[in-house]
Amino acid sequence: MPEQKYVLEKIFQANDNIAAENRYKLDKAGIYSLNLVASPGAGKTSLVECTIKMLKPQFRISVINGDIATRFDTDRAAAVGAQAAQINTGGECHLDAMMVKTALNDLSLAGVDLLIIENVGNLVCPASFKLGTHCMVVVASVPEGDDKPYKYPGTYLKADVIILNKIDLLPYVPFNVETFLRGVRILNPNAEVFEVSCLKDLGLDRWSNWLSTKIRSPR
Amino acid sequence: MPEQKYVLEKIFQANDNIAAENRYKLDKAGIYSLNLVASPGAGKTSLVECTIKMLKPQFRISVINGDIATRFDTDRAAAVGAQAAQINTGGECHLDAMMVKTALNDLSLAGVDLLIIENVGNLVCPASFKLGTHCMVVVASVPEGDDKPYKYPGTYLKADVIILNKIDLLPYVPFNVETFLRGVRILNPNAEVFEVSCLKDLGLDRWSNWLSTKIRSPR
Known about the structure:
CATH superfamily of chain A: P-loop containing nucleotide triphosphate hydrolases
Oligomer: homodimer
Largest sheet of chain A: 7 strands, parallel
Number of domains of chain A: 1
Structural class of chain A: alpha/beta
Shape of chain A: globular
Number of strands of chain A: 7
Distance between the termini of chain A: 42 Å
Strand content of chain A: 15-25%
Helix content of chain A: 40-55%
CATH topology of chain A: Rossmann fold
Strand order of the largest sheet of chain A: 3-2-4-1-5-6-7
CATH architecture of chain A: 3-Layer(aba) Sandwich
């Protein structure tokens, strides 16, 4: 359908323009920003909670949570001390730059150092929509299986950081870390990779140190 | 964007028409059919493997696997004795009725009793596209968390069957079965629910008995 292609091009172009506006606004405010992308239940919200707890002594953090329904994740981020805004997409399978622009208007950006945007749980569609963030983080998890980079290459290709979560479950499920990492490296040799367990507090120091350096770096 | 709404309506309408054609073809061939929908890594392919192993003494089974990339899952279904066809969607986040129509042309339907269609791993988009199957099965998994029915209501609403997989991991992760089931019941009081572990072969007899009855029922 030629109309479909035309409309999609128009949508992506409009989205990219608004993403560039969002980036300008974030840069002007001196805010480093993450776009967390993952399957449902990979542990994005747990990672947000752990990251806030570790970094809040040094940095002021805001969170935007994207979900089809509920404000569960926003409540979790607020409970550990972040300013948090909820986007409920209705049925939409991803956040887009306009939704983030609207949410940025709801947040007070003065003094904020880090903005974490938690996308809708979906390993496909969010990768097609830039939000204006500085860093796209793909959160993988051990029980999902080691074949995910091979099966969802579009998302793994675009990641700046890949966090493999739930490594505490390695003894209980078939998951070969080498197979997973080989898939990551084939697609995306430059991505930073962190192996963590948010539940058992494993490997998170390396991630928070890396992120702290990024937040402090000039942009 | 009004063009966007117009194009989406056209797409859904065209899809529904082709889904009806697929259903007609399946009914005429006396085939019962499942559409498996789940997050990436919930265990759709493991469920397909277990189901084939249990039912192949009684029934002839074909499988259509949808994936963005790779034919890993088709190879797994073929290895346990099913006729299997692969659909690689490129970047598409769901199967649609036209893809299934094409795949049905590739399969030999004579004598087949059960067709299992494994959708792309995505808990959002596949629910919007009818394929023409008799039964939509949502595969949930324990490590994803008990909040998924609340957060992905569109998919849980449309399910005929919900299979909660990976119950062997209940001792190792925070997951309240009651919370999960309450979410399911609020949205969808009539869905059949099965609690299983494909890895540890738990709870699968009830599922295979239910499915056998469906396959044998007149349509």
